[in-house]
Design a protein that fits this description.
Layout lengths: L1 E3 L8 E3 L2 E10 L4 E2 L6 E4 L5 E3 L3 E4 L6 E8 L16 E6 L5 E7 L1 E5 L3 E2 L2 E15 L4 E12 L2 E12 L6 E9 L5 E10 L3 E3 L3 E3 L19 E3 L5 E8 L5 E15 L13 E8 L6 E9 L2 E11 L2 E7 L10 E15 L2 E16 L2 H12 L9 H19 L7 H12 L5 E11 L5 E4 L2 E4 L9 E11 L2 E5 L7 E10 L2
Parallel strand pairs: 3-29, 4-30, 7-15, 16-21, 22-28
Antiparallel strand pairs: 1-34, 2-33, 3-34, 5-33, 6-9, 7-8, 8-13, 9-13, 10-12, 10-14, 11-13, 14-15, 16-17, 17-23, 18-22, 19-20, 23-26, 24-25, 24-27, 27-28, 29-32, 30-31
Helix pairs in contact: 1-2, 1-3, 2-3
C-alpha cells in the first residue's frame, strides 16, 4: 500500500488489520521532534435477527417418520405462536448492514419460499423430508446456515430446529361386554388418548393406530386388538354373562405422560397431536348406546360429551381443553372417564372406562432468551480461538436441541452451561506496528521527543531517525491509523500490507 501526501496535510485511513506501515517524511529543518500516538481500535459488531421453527412434528409413523407435518415457530417480531396444527413454518433473517444473504438447511430437503435476499429473508417452509428417518419418540437436529455479506466480508449465522417423531402408542381402556342369555347383547368400546410423550401402567397393549385407523362400521370384537402386556399402556376386560339381568364392567388403562412448555402454551388444546377419543365398536342389542365422556381435575368434574342413542363409530376425537397460567411449573393429573350402556329387555351391559393424563409443566423462557441472544450476536468463528469456539458452538446446538425437544423438562442446567460457554469465548488477537522514518544526514543529530539523538541512536546508521508505535487488538476490531505530526516534517508517502 502506498499513500502520497501534500506537504503538512494529514489524512486517516481505516483498515481491518494492519500488519506494517512505513511513514516517510521529508526533512525541511531538523528541530524538536515528538511522537504523537495516532493508532487506535474500535470493536464493530453486526447484530442479526434469525428465527427458524423451534420444533417440527413429523408425520406419525409406526416404523420411521420423515416428512414434516406441524411447525412450532415464532413470528418475525419474536412472538411465539401456539397453534396445534400449523402446516407452514416461518423462517426469518435480517442484518441491516448486509448487502446479500442466502439460507440453506442441513439434515433435510426443505420446500420453502425465497431463500435469498439483500439484507432480509422472510419466508415459510411448506414441506420437507429429513435425511435420516426417525423411529417414534426420537428427535434429530436440523442446522440452518445463512451466508451474508457485510462490507465485502462473507459472514455466516446458524440456527437450529428439532424434528420430533411422535409416539404412536396410546393409553386406552377397552371393554368387551356380552350377555348370552337368549339373544346375545354386546357392548364393546374403547376410550383412548394419543399425542403422549410416554406412558406407564396398564395390563395390555392395544395394536390399533388411532392416528390413522378408522373406527369400525360393522359390529366388531375387540379381543384381537389387545395383547396382554404389563405396562403396555392399555387396560382390557372381556366378560360374558348368561343371566337375564344387568351387569357393570369396569376397566382402567394406563397413564399418559406429556411435557408442556408453559412459556409458549396456555392450554392443552394447543399441543400438536394431543387428543382424547371414544369408539363404539359393537352395539348388538337395542342397536344404540347411551352415556357420557368426562374429565376430572382436582375433584372438579367437567362433562365433555353426551352419548345419546349412538351407534357404531368414532363419537369423540378432540383436543384436550385445560388451561394453565403462563410460566407455570409443576405437575397436574387429569382423569378421563366414559360410560356407555345398552340393553335387550332386562339384560343391561353397562361399561365404565378410565384413563389418566399426567402433565409436567416447564418454562423455557430463559433458555430461549439465551439461545436467541447467542444467535443474534452475529459472532464469527474466525474471531475466536478454535477450542473456545468449538465448546461454544456445540453447547449452543445442545441448548437448541433441549429448547425444541417437546419432551425435555430440565432446562436450567443447559442455560447455565451456554452462558458459561459464551462468557468463556477467547478472541483471536493481532497487532499493528507503525514505523516513522525521519530523514537526516548520516551522522547528524537532532531532538526526538525532547532528547538529543544522532542517526545511529535507533541502532542503524542509515540516515533516518526511527520512531515505532504498536497496538494489540482483537479480531473483528476496526483499526484506525494516521501519520504523526513532527515539526519541520511533512508526509511524503505511506506503504504497508494487511493480514486479513
Amino acid at each position: 500500500m502506498t499513500i502520497l501526501y501534500n506537504p503538512m496535510k494529514r489524512i486517516i485511513g481505516v483498515l481491518t488489520a494492519i500488519a506494517l506501515l512505513f511513514v516517510m517524511l521529508f526533512n525541511f529543518n531538523i528541530g524538536f521532534l515528538r511522537a504523537e500516538a495516532t493508532v487506535s481500535n474500535t470493536h464493530v459488531s453486526y447484530p442479526i435477527t434469525f428465527y427458524v421453527p423451534e420444533t417440527i412434528y413429523l408425520n406419525p409413523s409406526d416404523t420411521a417418520a420423515s416428512t414434516f407435518k406441524y411447525y412450532v415457530y415464532c413470528e418475525t417480531n419474536g412472538n411465539l405462536n401456539a397453534n396445534n396444527a400449523d402446516t407452514t413454518g416461518k423462517v426469518y433473517f435480517n442484518c441491516a448492514a448486509a448487502t446479500s444473504c442466502s439460507i440453506a438447511c442441513e439434515g433435510a430437503a426443505v420446500a420453502m419460499g425465497a431463500n435469498t435476499g439483500t439484507n432480509t429473508i422472510d419466508t415459510n417452509i411448506t414441506a420437507g423430508t429429513i435425511v435420516a428417518p426417525l423411529s417414534p419418540g426420537k428427535t434429530s437436529l436440523l442446522k440452518w446456515t445463512v451466508t451474508y455479506t457485510v462490507n465485502g466480508e462473507t459472514r455466516t449465522a446458524k440456527a437450529y430446529t428439532v424434528c420430533y417423531a411422535p409416539v404412536i402408542d396410546e393409553v386406552a381402556a377397552g371393554i368387551r361386554h356380552a350377555h348370552t342369555y337368549s339373544t346375545a347383547v354386546f357392548n364393546q368400546g374403547i376410550l383412548w388418548l394419543i399425542g403422549l410423550h410416554s406412558f406407564s401402567g396398564g395390563s395390555h397393549k392395544c395394536v390399533k393406530n388411532f392416528f390413522t385407523d378408522s373406527a369400525p362400521t360393522n359390529n366388531t370384537g375387540l379381543e384381537p386388538w389387545f395383547q396382554s402386556s404389563s405396562g403396555g399402556g392399555a387396560g382390557f376386560r372381556s366378560e360374558s354373562h348368561s343371566s337375564n339381568a344387568g351387569d357393570d364392567e369396569r376397566v382402567t388403562g394406563g397413564t399418559a405422560n406429556i411435557t408442556v412448555d408453559s412459556s409458549r402454551y396456555t392450554n392443552l388444546n394447543q399441543i400438536p397431536n394431543l387428543k382424547l377419543g371414544f369408539w363404539q365398536c359393537d352395539v348388538e342389542g337395542d342397536g344404540t348406546v347411551n352415556g357420557w365422556i368426562k374429565q376430572s381435575v382436582d375433584s372438579v368434574e367437567t362433562h365433555l360429551f353426551s352419548l345419546n342413542n349412538v351407534g357404531l363409530g368414532c363419537h369423540y376425537s378432540n383436543s384436550i381443553n385445560y388451561l394453565n397460567t403462563q410460566g407455570l411449573y409443576g405437575t397436574k393429573h387429569i382423569d378421563f372417564s366414559a360410560y356407555s350402556e345398552n340393553n335387550r329387555g332386562s339384560r343391561w351391559n353397562r361399561n365404565h372406562y378410565n384413563i389418566d393424563l399426567s402433565v409436567t409443566y416447564t418454562n423455557k423462557t430463559y433458555l430461549r432468551s439465551q439461545v436467541r441472544a447467542c444467535i443474534q450476536a452475529g459472532l464469527q468463528e474466525a474471531d475466536y480461538s478454535p477450542s473456545s469456539w468449538s465448546t461454544y458452538s456445540n453447547t449452543l446446538a445442545d441448548a437448541a436441541e433441549i429448547l425444541g425437544n417437546p419432551t425435555k423438562t430440565d432446562v436450567s442446567n443447559i442455560a447455565a452451561t451456554l452462558l458459561n460457554a459464551f462468557s468463556s469465548l477467547s478472541k483471536t488477537t493481532k497487532s499493528v506496528v507503525i514505523t516513522h522514518l525521519l530523514p537526516c544526514p548520516v551522522g547528524a543529530t537532532g531532538l526526538v521527543d525532547g532528547m538529543l539523538k544522532d542517526d545511529s541512536a535507533d541502532g542503524s546508521n542509515d540516515g533516518y531517525f526511527t520512531i515505532t508505535e504498536s497496538l494489540t487488538f482483537e479480531s473483528s476490531d476496526t483499526v484506525y491509523f494516521s501519520p504523526n505530526n513532527y515539526t519541520g516534517y511533512t508526509v511524503v508517502s505511506a506503504s504497508g500490507s494487511t493480514t486479513s
